[in-house]
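Need the bound structure for Dihydroxyacetone, inputs here:
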Amino acid sequence: MVTIRNNDRLMAEIERIAEVAGYLWTKGWAERNGGNISVNLTAFLTEEEKALPALLPAIPLREPVSALSGHIFYVTGTGKRMRYVAKEPLSNGSLIRISPDGKAYEIIAERPIQPTSELPSHLLMHDFLRAKGRDNRVVLHTHPTDLIGMTHCEPFLDSEKITRTLWSMIPECRIIVPKGMGIVPYEIPGTLALAHATIRQLERHDVVFWEKHGILAVGEDIIECFDAIDTLSKSAQIYLYARMAGYEPEGMTDRQLDDLVPAFGL
Ligand code: 2HA
Ligand code: ZN
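Answer from helper R.:
Posting the output first, comments after.
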């Protein structure tokens, strides 16, 4: 019988997803079932594993994702909590296979766990990035308290303003999030309107704020996506702590930020 459990590389990658799910919970970014993760695992599966039988009838997608034909994703389950994804990723998420025409998906392992309500949005983002030739494997959405807090302040609902403020708190932020952050004005969670507005921001950024809701990062590696959000959260904390202490933080100068570009090959 074909089982994904014997594939050590695949299981190690699923363990890295679980590791990050644990960080989201311990950081306080994943209240209840907050947040969701999808990771393209196609490169980790054997041909035999890719052809595993579907556990349920195919589920149609609202919009086709033709650049993802035949691709396999790990996706957190709808209503599932990150603190449990951390312990048992395959009981709180599943592997899905996109149909050859990109119009539907099937759950192929390990249990018939329905994917997150944000799946159609995640897939549209994966599809967009892959069609653009970006080797994107990860879409990570979470609810960092400090970063969401900043989106409640009107002047920060401006990509340049929030990027400049957070970059200037510590050098690492400029280095680790070199494309800056996009902003998506409030939309109802789980809607394709939110997905399309996010995709417009992904043209220029790898990290996007969702006003009064959360943050979304895309990238090649789940740990790196987490690190980008974690670094932004650190910057937000420095900014907010300074404001709470009653002073406006000075921030690095433009010159200091610009000097990082050649120094780190940005
Ligand atoms: O999965 O965070 O945006 C729960 C959410 C929806
Ligand atoms: Zn959310």
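Comments: Residues 222-244 form the longest helix (23 residues). The chain has a mean pLDDT of 97.
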